[in-house]
Known about the structure:
This protein is mainly alpha-helical. The relative contact order is 0.12. It is built from 5 helices and no strands. The chain has a domain at 5-78.
Amino acid sequence: MEITEAQYGRIESSLPRQRGNVSLTNLAVLNAILYVAEQGCKWRGLPKRFGNWHTIYTRMNRWSKNGVLDRIFEQLQREQIVRIKITAVKLDSTIVKVHPDGTGALKKTAPRPSASPAADGPPKFIWLPRMLEPR
């Protein structure tokens, strides 16, 4: 799911203008973002042909915070260049099982032995060391 130069020309107005010494064009970054969206891979899993994954992630993060990504995907949909269905997943806390320690519940502590061992009753567990038989 990569867009061509001609398709990029149709949506270029919704992207910020590149200034300064940049190593990747907006088209290359956009194609890398579309690759991650399509493949569902991690940023570190981007193929080398897209460039440095950290540079792409940083620019995508900046675009996301500034609302640029929303404009780009709207424009891609409007121009019918790429058809993307964005879905949101909601997790309700009533369906997620959490270990009791993770909920802030009090942890079980060992019972404190009383002053007299006879009052505690017989021991519940006895450990007897065993010698291994020589071979």
